[in-house]
Amino acid sequence: MVNRRAFLLSGLALYGASARDLFAGPPARQSPRFSTTPFTLGVASGDPTSDGVVLWTRLAVDPLNGGGMGSQPVQVGWEIAADEQMSKVVKKGTVVASPEWAHAVHVEVSGLEPHRWYWYRFHAGNETSPIGRTRTFPAAQRAVDRLRFAFASCQHYEQGYFTAYDHMAKEDLDFVMHLGDYIYENPGLDNRVRKHVGPELMTVDDYRNRYAQYRSDPALQTAHAQYPWIVVWDDHEVDNNYASVYQENNAPFEAFAIRRANGYKAYYEHMPLRRTSVPRGTSLQLYRPFQFGALASIFMLDTRQFRSDQPCGDNVKPVCEGVRDPKATMLGAEQERWLMNGLDRSRTAWNLLGQQVMLSRLDRIAGPEQQFSMDKWDGYEVARKRLLDFLGTRKPRNPVTLAGDIHCNWVNDLRLDFDNPKSPIVATEFVGTSITSTGDGADQLPGYKIAASENEWVRFYNDQRGYVTCDLTPKQMRTDFKVLEYVTRPNSPIKTRASFVVEDGRTGAQEN
Ligand SMILES: [Fe+2]
User: Who is most buried in 26, 118, 368, 457, counting CB within 10 A?
Assistant: First the structure.
């Protein structure tokens, strides 16, 4: 089985394309005349370092129907400036938007100054894009007073308006972290707030049209244009609850591997990712590190691509043998090693893990019987224990884990041993709610309210939509849970529902 899978993955290695293909191909149209703007999907930037950032756009005159750009490559000019008016251009160049990559471009700008804002735009033919704003991070080990970012996840287009992003764009942030479920794969359904275009996503074109529909949303475009983003995926960028090449309903993995490759390719095409994340065959390198001066190391994790299949048949179940399988993995051996080595080497004041699914144990039913969601770390007990043991013994400085996926807000003290209430807290977990997924919600809902009271390490639970802002200084990390009154109608106001503080050198969150 494993060999067959390895063979399949290597056989599909030519399915995608290598980085070199990005720059090859027939001569590009240098000055096409467009009758409507090809910059319908806006601009974005991401993966900042202390000397550079990725600039992104995709040309699409007919975004919901394959882009409408034809089969020829198009030359795209880019420029990045030190001022908002684009009068002090510091770097510029041209790239080719090729049909093989949906006429998307990813410009890796380097040689910029650390820790400052820049502005950028693109030109194609007779058209110019909107101006985006982005920034570089402080140089490694440079003392920094403050880092402020927001994290978000789960933006089901059919279940609500992206009002949260209008509010986020008005915050004062250094970057946005997205923890996955950027799109959802289901076909358009009637009687929802908005309707997906197209069928259940299978082909590259299906996935491209879906990204185009989401990225056509003005609020989402505004948030991308305002800050650099650091993104990772969860399951719905391909299919609900998939694990490696194993599909939810155990469909044949040959077909699913091709579907996964299609989803991964469209993900790369639409996200401001570096060349290191160009998909290869059915794989895409997404886990990667960031450093914000001496203040914070950020480890972005991929808990989908390498995990073993969920035990006990997915969903919420009592514990079966598979939960304690020592060979079961959430990160895969290589990523786990990379994470632990990185944490060991880190010298920053804070160490943040940006990942997808809840790390804390969460018994979902009342009384002595226990049931767990097998898609979360609860289904991978031995792998979780390895990570918590590592945090408890190697003691990286101020570890904090961030997650999404579950469509509600949680604050959890991560105990070394969840069965022992006197066991030390080795890290704090902040789980952010969805942008829209599952709709309006309410302050607390009965199902999770039971879970919140059933697990003594849970410090906070809330079931409204929104996002979380994080303020870090060398002395403390503060989180503010921003919630919307509603998402099924536009223009909801936003409020801070709760705030927590983690102090330097002291694990565990204090309500503020
Ligand atoms: Fe989700």
Answer: 118
Phi–psi pair at 37, nearest 5 degrees: -65, 140
Residues 454 and 377 in one domain: yes
Mind listing the pLDDT tens digit for each residue in 342-395?
999 999 999 999 999 999 999 999 999 999 999 999 999 999 999 999 999 999
How far does residue 436's CA lie from ligand 1's centre (Å)? Answer: 9
Domain boundary among 134, 165, 200: 134
Quick one: 147 and 121 in the same domain? no
Q: Token pair for residue 317?
A: 């179940």
How sure is the predictor about 19, in pLDDT bands with cuts at 50, 70 and 90?
very low
Q: How far apart are CA 315 and CA 371, in angstroms?
A: 10
The tally of domains found in the chain comes to: 2
Residue 11 covered by a domain: no
Examine the domain organization and report whether 142 and 130 are in the same domain: no
Q: Domain range holding 196?
A: 138-511
The gap from C-alpha 356 to its chain's centroid, in whole angstroms, comes to 8
Digit-coded pLDDT (tens) for 340-349: 999 999 999 9
Quote the ligand 1 centre to 484 CA distance (angstroms): 17
Please give the model's pTM, rounded to 2 decimal places.
Answer: 0.95
The answer to whether residues 130 and 146 belong to one domain is no
Q: Give ion ligand 1 contacts, CB < 5 A.
A: 154, 181, 437
Q: For residue 252, report the distance from its CA to the centre of ligand 1, in Å.
A: 24
Q: What does the pLDDT look like over 133-179, one tens digit per residue?
A: 999 999 998 999 999 999 999 999 999 999 999 999 999 999 999 99
Q: How many Å apart are CA 423 and CA 400, to the nearest integer?
A: 18
Whole-number Å distance between alpha carbons of 119 and 80: 6
Here the CATH number for the domain that contains residue 49 is 2.60.40.380
